Amino acid sequence: MKVSIIDPADPRILDYIGLRDQQLRRQREAPGGDLAGVFIAEGALVVERALHAGYELKSVLIDATRGEPIPDVVPRDVPHYFAGGAVVNEVTGIHLHRGLISVFYRKELPLAEELLAESRRVVVLENVTNPTNMGVIVRSAAGLGIDALLLDPRSCDPLYRRALRVAMGEAFSLPHARVGYLPPGLDPVRRHGFRIAALTPDGGATPIDDFKASADERVALLLGAEGPGLTPATLDVVDERLTIPMRGGVDSLNVGAAAAIAFYAITRG
User: Is the CB of residue 87 less than 8 Å from the CB of residue 96?
Assistant: First the structure.
């Protein structure tokens, strides 16, 4: 269903307003917000992966100057809003990635207990609020054998537009759930018999090269925010602390880069 849009204030495209404002979008898409129950997918690849993962498409906003065809998997019976570049930029606040962006309905998140019962390797995030870091972590986790992602209430949404784009839609293939604030939020992880390891730049921690775990052993790797890392209270309750040995006077890596190394280390057994 093709619809031409010439007015940035057209109520039919209110879903797309303010995409660059992360705080605004989190408020609008949170429970109780006017966009509760939806998320934004940007770019043809992410849109296609969302559809293949079974997410229901609500609408598509397309830059009318887009030179590429609309992917065949995009249902033709949902609204296709076509607008000029100036209108798109005014509405969304961004330059559309290859001229295509869409709104999908969310699925209900599984319970952490459900994911833990079926997993051997999980990652738990504490206060990871940067969408770019989230996207890198998700893509690395999906590609390196992590079974599930658990997030504390402060960590950002893996389905946030920029996180999805950086992860190239891999959040659709990596199950995720919310837990409570850490350290109490680790209680279900312990109940399911996971060995809890924290990644930290602390020089007194065990070098990650020395980490050993059988394929059947359950391991949960904890990652904290860029800069402050995991909170002292959380570090106090883990079973072991792991570190990536650094050289050249560099004290630590970006959390996304560190995560990829750690995921490889804990899954190679």
Answer: no
